[in-house]
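Folding Task

Wanted — backbone structure
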Amino acid sequence: MAQSADLKAKIEGLNKVFQFYYKENFKTLRKATDFYIPWFIGRKKRLEEFQKQYIPFSVALFLEGVRNSTLKMEGEPNEELIEALRAKLLHKSFKPDFDEYWNVIESTLERNPENPKEVSDAVSALLMFKLYGPKASEPMPEKLDSQRHTIASEFQVGKIHYQYSRGVRIALERLLNPKFDPEFVPRAAHDPKVLNAEVAKSETPSEEKKKAE
């Protein structure tokens, strides 16, 4: 079945969003999960092991952003767009792992559709289990039980979830209006721009303090 011009434009625009953040977050997520990749011997194998999870994980979080944005903009998730993007971005060899991430997302949304943090935390937990659980090539239960690793992974996955969601919304809005101002899309509390603004605000003396001086 031929795709409409509108669907093709959405796929092209959203693919650019996905590719940008997919490349940008590869190293940061690997470091956050503390997944060790050697410089020489065994490097290729370890990279493949990480990518085996990073690819379906990334596509699932990205498509959740598409689902959420189209729900808000169109009144219901655009299943045709979601399926077309899944077919474009995900090789069939990664589908079993993708299905696990997608099922976690859907089950979490069924319990609480209004809390994106629960989604990213659930996906983060599954990612860590895949990387270090009993079925991993190098099981490391100490990392699964480590609070430091849990916090680092949850923060990074939350950031990626937010970037995908916001990037998708802006791309779709700009297809409707090329002059759309991205500042109309709310920023998350952990967005660098929000954090920098809060720091600047805390460092600026209040009017009351100025008067007291």
User: Anything to note?
Assistant: The mean pLDDT is 89. Residues 5-212 form one domain.
